[in-house]
Amino acid sequence: MSNLTSVIKSIQDVMRQDSGVDGDAQRISQLTWLLFLKVFDAQEEELELTRDGYKSPIPEHLRWRNWATDAEGLTGEGLLGFVNDQLFPKLKTLPGDAGRNPRGFVVRSVFEDAFNYMKSGQLLRQVINKLNAIDFNRQAERHQFNDLYEKILRDLQSAGNAGEFYTPRAVTQFMVDQVNPKLGEVVLDPACGTGGFLVCALEHLRKQVANEHDQATLQRSVRGVEKKQLPHMLCTTNMMLHGVEVPSRIAHDNTLTRPLRDYGAADRVDVIITNPPFGGVEEPGTENNFPADVRTKETADLFLVLIKHLLRDGGRGALVLPDGTLFGEGVKSRIKEQLLAECNLHTIVRLPNGVFSPYTGIKTNLLFFTKGTPTKEVWYYEHPYPAGAKNYNKTKPIRIEEFDVEKAWWGDEADGFAGRVEGEFAWKVGMAAIKASGFNLDQKNPHAGPEVSHDPDELMAEYRRLQGEAQGIRDQLKAILGKALAGQ
Known about the structure:
Number of helices: 17
Strand order of the largest sheet: 3-2-1-4-5-7-6-8-9
Number of strands: 9
C-alpha cells in the first residue's frame, strides 16, 4: 500500500509543476482520465484472454498500450499534440449506445466533458510513466488500489466542492447491510457521485455468486446516475476496478430533469440506496417535472419524491437526509405525508454531529422504508458516540463496528420487527402522533435528558436572549430606584 500511495503522491507532485493544472480538483480530474484509460486497457487484456474475437471500441493507435506504455516514446509537444488533437476528439465522439457497442458508449460518456489540463508534454510523460508502475491485473495490487482510490475520493471532497461530500464507508456499509440486496435484484443510486453505495452493493451481492450465470446477473445488478462530469468519471472507473465489465448503466445525467410521469414500469427497481445532495437548489424549472403539490427547488426533497416513485411495490429504500427535511413544514410536510401513506417508513437512525466532518456539520439521519404498505409506526435509533468520544473527525471517523448495536437490535421486517425493544437509544412513535405533529419526523428521544446544544448560532441566540432578559431586569431596577429616590 505504501508503494502505491507514494506513486500517486509523486504523480500529484509532478502535476503541481505544470502551469495548466490549477488546484486539487483539476489534479484529480487529470489523474482520473489517465487512470480510466489504463484501467480500461488492463480490463481489455483480460477480455482478450477470456472472449473469443474481442474487439476494442477504441481505435488501435489510441489504445493505452500503443501510445502510453513506452517510457521513451511520445513526449513533449508530440505527446501534447497527440492527446489534444487526436485522443480527446476521437474518444469524445466514439459511436455506440448502451445497447450497441456499450463499451464505446462508456468511453464516450466519460470523455464527453473531460479535459486535458496539462500544458507540458514532458511532465505528462512523467505522470504516465509513474502510472504504468501500477499493474491493475495483479489481484493484490488492484485490491490495494481500491483503498487508495477511496483516499483519492476523500481528497476530492477536501478540494471544497460545495454540497458534495464523501459518505463515510461505515455509513455506506451499514445501509447496504440492512437493506440486504439479493442477487437478481436491481440496485439504483440516482445521485451516485463517485459510486460508494454501488461498490458496497456489488461487494454484498458478489458473496452470493456461485456460478457463471450468477456472475452475469451480478454485471446487470447496479445502476447509477451522476450529473457532474468528474464524479461520473470516478464512478465509472470505480465500477471497472470492482469487476463491472461494461459500466454503461452509470449514466452521466440528472435524474431530476426528467418529468416524473415519464418514468414507467421499466424504470422501477428493487432497491434504492443513496445520499442525495442536500442544501442545494436545483436550476429554475426543474421543479416543474414534479406534481404541483410537491414542487420545490430543494434538491433533497425532490429526490425523496423521485425515490418513492422509482421503487417497485415491495422495493426497499435507504437514504441519508438532513434534520431540516425531518422537521420542515409546507411542501416538506406534504412529501412526508405521501411517503408515510405509500411506504412503511419503519426505521430512522439518527446520527450524531460530526459524521460528515469536515465537509459539513449538518446533523443527518438514515431513513429505511419499504414501498407498498403505509406506515403504522416509526422506530428511531439514536446512534451514540463510542465511549470516550465527543465528536468524529478526519482522523477518527465513524466505524462500521459501532453499528453492531443497531444490527443486533434490528430484527426482521417479515414479523413486523416484533423483537425490537425500547431502550436508552431506541423508541417508537405511532402514526397518530406523527400526524398530529404535522408530519414532523424530528421526534425526540423520550429517554434522553435535556439536550445541550453546541451549535454556535443557537448559543448566540441564547446569549442574546439572556442579555435581553438581564437588560430588562436592569431597566426595572432603575425604574424602582428612580421612584424610590423621587419619593424621598
